[in-house]
What does this fold into?
Amino acid sequence: MTSKIGPANGKIVIAPSILSADLWNLAKEVQTVDEAGADWLHVDVMDGHFVPNLSFGPATVKSLSARTDLPLDVHLMVQYPLRFIEAFAKAGADMLTVHIEAQDDVEEALLLIKKLGVKTGLSIKPDTDPLRIQPFLSILDLILVMTVQPGFGGQSFLPHSPAHISAVRSQIKAAKRPIWLEVDGGINAQTAAEAAHAGADAFVAGNAIFAAAQPKRALQDIRKAATI
Ligand code: DX5
Ligand code: ZN
It folds into this structure.
């Protein structure tokens, strides 16, 4: 399997989250964000244990990968990622992000993702010390800083998020490796600018795009705000 996602390259990435899409019209929703210039598609996977909600599984990723060229950025909010990594890789995930707070061994999960030819991501929840990512920097392609408590779309960006983002950016700089710094939760044009100033280069947005009266315009406004 080869990933459609390359190393961080100084450009801005916008990744609409289909959690907020109208699932009846999923094909049309994906086409809309594709035409608006989305870079990746963010797929939130929830298991009802790690977070109090359920969402998508490998079958959704498989259908998407057969029908869209957009790279699939899959966020595993699951307690036991090792059970699911292979299925998501086979289904066509281009990035697989696991949580540092999950129950499985983080390094084992990341090495399995890498072995399967998929880009490796590690996420931290809003209350997790950003310094905990340090031991994994040499194998990571992306760090996902949660800017809301994971589980639901449509929440507000937590005010202490910029401090977390800056702390992660400093570690990426020190590691001297091309690692994406993604933010997820409550991202709109205003908070995207704040996150960008703190050092983010990949921006997930669900509600701000899919619930907007003009989703294409909303995506473009986020990109403009994030380009600093
Ligand atoms: C939250 C998910 C997010 C969510 C973001 O648990 O990880 O990806 O879809 O949605 P918004 O942009 O509406 O906060
Ligand atoms: Zn997410």
Notes: The mean pLDDT is 98. The two ends are 34 Å apart (CA to CA). Strands lie at 13-16, 41-46, 72-77, 95-99, 119-124, 142-146, 180-184, 202-205. Residues 161-175 form the longest helix (15 residues).
